[in-house]
Amino acid sequence: MKEINPSNGFCSKTKIYHSLRPQVILPPTNQPLSASEYAISLLRSSSLSLENTIAFIDSSTGTSLSYSDFIKQTESLSFSLHNRFGLKRGDTAFILSSTSLQIPILYFSLLSLGVIVSPANPISTIPEISRQISLVKPVIGFSTSVTSNKLPSFHHGTVLLDSLDFKSMLTIQQPGRVNVQVVQTDTAAILYSSGTTGLVKGVELTHRNFIAFTAGHNQVRLEMVEENQPHPIGLFTIPLFHVFGFCVALIAVALGETAVLMDRFDFEGMLKAVETYKVTYVPVSPPLVVAMAKLDLVDKFDLSSLLVVACGGAPLGYVGDDEATVATLDSEGWLKTGDLCNVDNDGFLYIVDRLKELIKYKAYQVPPAELEHLLQTHLEIADVAVVPYPDEEAGQIPMAFVVRKPGSNLTGIQVMEFVAKQVAPYKKIRRVAFVSSIPKSAAGKISRKELIDSIQTTPLSKL
């Protein structure tokens, strides 16, 4: 189209930005295909030796699993679940477990059967879990001996991932693969929003969503092939029950990469794992990028192997919440991510903030992320979060929760003056509270709701 600007992809006629990358080749929509089957097909088409390539490593024990064993155990588990429990296409499985080597095997097995995968945070409370279960109506549960007491009874019971029984399901000599005709538009997974701004929602994603996401990454990989590149090794600090962790696990298998798994996040443990396993990329949340750039601890480890850090992800729709889904997808199929963005003349997209997190100060809108980014440049601030504080005259004013660096005597007045010198008057920080840490979700997102709820009990400095 002549109207599309070749520099940034903007179409002057439709006012739509188009990707400047070549169109991603996808399998026909009417082809029966699961997300796991597609990922495995890409893996098998590569030149990798599946017997000699490590698929997953448990960072806490050093235990590893080759791709050939990963595929064998996935197929064995599929056979076991199909024959013992009669799991079928459209059933939902609820999973309550921290990250382990068993989780990717379980995900790929369930996806291949057309069973909807619904993993939740294992530290969730029983009321939170009850709400999630009421949304997805699972027929079977998977947990560990530590988390099983949080689950109710299911039609097919609960399978313990750390039991000898589950281990035996991974090594059955099955007569053949289970053949299930999975439709690409079938729901593949229901994951849960972090609930940082309200009630937890069930986020629905189809096999086609995951296939397209995987295909896009595969095409980028093919475009960037260079000689003597190191074998890609990823460190998964984000839990696999999170949508981002779920997606990167699928991509790692499709691209034949090695994934180093952490059962729980620990910053020093992450740095040690990068050094030990010569990690080349880390999927991370934005606050973690800030920590890597600011904390002195980073300098004590050899991170020379690390080439890329990345983050991203967006939902398709919400289970049991038609109003939220309608607010997310418009009539033409456009996904409203809720992000405040801008695009430069070269087509680069910049995420500035979340629309729902904007602070409404009088007639102005103040993006918290902009103020957080500014405050993170202060040499005495280790971490920070900015939230709206109710104000009778202005409606809301920006308030900063600040974590001082060790030994710092930084005051609230100094924080406010630091910001005031660099922003427009309406963006000034007008209240400050010093805290020992910023509450965050398992994915590393700031729990703004928790901070807002704590305002009444927190000592403040104010302008």
TrEMBL record:
Transmembrane segments: 93-117, 233-255
Domain AMP-dependent synthetase/ligase stretches: 52-317
Any one GO molecular-function label of the UniProt entry: CoA-ligase activity
Keyword terms of this UniProt record: Ligase, Membrane, Transmembrane, Transmembrane helix
SUPFAM superfamilies on file: Acetyl-CoA synthetase-like
Annotated ranges, domain AMP-binding enzyme C-terminal: 370-445
Similarity section: Belongs to the ATP-dependent AMP-binding enzyme family.
Protein name: 4-coumarate--CoA ligase-like
Organism: Thalictrum thalictroides
